[in-house]
Amino acid sequence: MSRFVRTGMTVAIAVCTSCLWSQKGVHPPVYRVTVMERGITAIHYQYGGGPTKVDFRGTALLPDAKGEAVVQSRRERTDVDAKFEKLTPPTQFGREYLAYVLWAISPDGSWYNLGEVIPEASQRARLRVSTDLPAFGMIVTAEPYATVRRPSAVVVLENHVRPDTEGQVQRIQAKGDLVPRGSYGWQGPENPPAPKGPKVSMGRYEALVHLYQAQNAVGIAQLEKADLHAPDAFAAARRALSEAQHLIATKANDKLVVQYAREAEEHAEDARLIAERRKQEEQLAVVERASHEPSAAPTEARLPNQADREVREPEIHTQLLQRLDGSLPAQDMPQSVLITLPDNSFDGAKLLAGVAEKLASIAAVLASHPSVRVNIQAYTDAGASELQSWERAQAVRNRLVEFGVAANQIAFRGMSVQANQRVEIIISSAQ
Fold first, then answer.
1. Which of 5-14, 157-166, 305-314, 319-328 shows the highest mean pLDDT?
2. Quick count: other Cβ atoms within 10 Å of Cβ 88?
3. According to the model, what pLDDT value does residue 13 have?
4. Crossing angle for the helix pair 386-402 and 254-291, nearest 10 degrees?
5. Residue (of 156, 395, 190, 356) closest to 277 by Cα position
6. Which of 6, 115, 369, 392 lies deepest, with the highest CB count within 10 Å?
7. DSSP letters of 190-218?
8. Domain map of the chain by residue range?
């Protein structure tokens, strides 16, 4: 029964732990890692091979923490049944950290949030999840809320191969850095010490935890100016948070509180990412404008280059269309080539492998002409989120970069709601 009973203000007790750190004037060390430096390995779990075990070991942040997972590859998924011990409250790393999250890391270094790890009063936790990845490594991090899309640098556990672990082991190539501590300017309000009161059910405890996480998510999104850059998503987050707060105040069903709190987290994370990417886009636009400002060189010195560009432009168009050879919808326009990737080119935000291979055929042309500019615009319809359009545009951009196109040749953005979902690749000579 202990799983369903917990002190009413365990969260506040956790905050007090954080307060002790600040009273001493010190902070726990941050375990700054990169996957390459740590040598985290991915395990390819063979389908039909039966269940196998992997261990989890605590890092310098939580050296006493440990765990194990039973992993089994099935026909269309991989099941993970993970157990952890000695998970002390995440708020010891800062008031902004309210959750532990289990991550899968694919061999190419992509991150996948598998779910929240919720310790009981005994500091034990269990999480059963499934993923469509056949090969992956796993880490556990402390996060400000459970729906984050990128792991923090506060890594508390990482998987280790056992002597009896079955599967092919391979090294992971990381994509992007972990979010360093201090990146989330929002730290949440100072909470009062835990009052002495009756115990509450596990359901009420989880409702309170998710409510605090939703407050964190909305606060962090607001600091990123999501109310200006992603007003629709941010407003949806605020509405869901307000409903969760009302439900908790009226002692409504705990599952409803969690539902609205999670909805607030997800909308807030969408809004934060949209705001972050729009600010990046604005910075790139400033750099782009600066690169095209007229130089002090005489006009006569620039004319040959301009004429040469005008001569070669049709040649580039011809090369691109020949490489595509009808494999992707393309239009030869007066000063550009427009390539359209329809909605069925993607699985959610993921670019399908077959379509990516077709992009490789034009990447060689783009890479050999550094003056050519690539503008990627992704459109959504009413049935998809604006964030997905950004993720699709970024997926296309990342593929072109992997195939050799210079990153500074490419601009990308998600667009407002349109009649149909698509991604347009506009290729033109620099002006």
1. 157-166
2. 16
3. 32
4. 50
5. 395
6. 392
7. PPPPPPP--EEEHHHHHHHHHHHHHHHHH
8. 8-171, 199-276, 299-429
Residue 115 falls in which region: left (phi positive, over 0), alpha (psi -120 to 50) or beta: left
Q: How many CA atoms lie within 13 A of 397 on its CB side?
A: 21
Q: From CA 2, how far away is CA 5, in angstroms rounded?
A: 5
Under CATH, which architecture does the 8-171 domain have? Sandwich (2.60)
Give the chain's length.
431
Does the pLDDT at position 293 exceed 80? no
Q: Is 308 helix (H, G, I), strand (E, B) or coil?
A: helix
154 close to 141: Cβ distance less than 8 angstroms: yes
Nearest residue to 104 (alpha-carbon basis) of 54, 58, 46: 54
Record: fold of 299-429: 60s Ribosomal Protein L30; Chain: A; (3.30.1330)
Half-sphere exposure of 312 (CA within 13 A, CB side): 16
Q: Which residues contact 7 (CB under 8 A, 6 or more apart)?
A: 13, 121, 194, 199, 200
Tokens of 359: 């992009």
Q: Give the model's pLDDT for residue 83.
A: 96
The answer for residues whose C-beta is within 8 angstroms of residue 205's C-beta and 6 or more apart is 6, 8, 10, 11
Which residue is associated with the tokens 């970069």?
401
Q: What predicted TM-score, i.e. pTM, was given to this entire model? A: 0.59
- The number of helices, as runs of H, and strands, as runs of E, in the chain is 9, 19
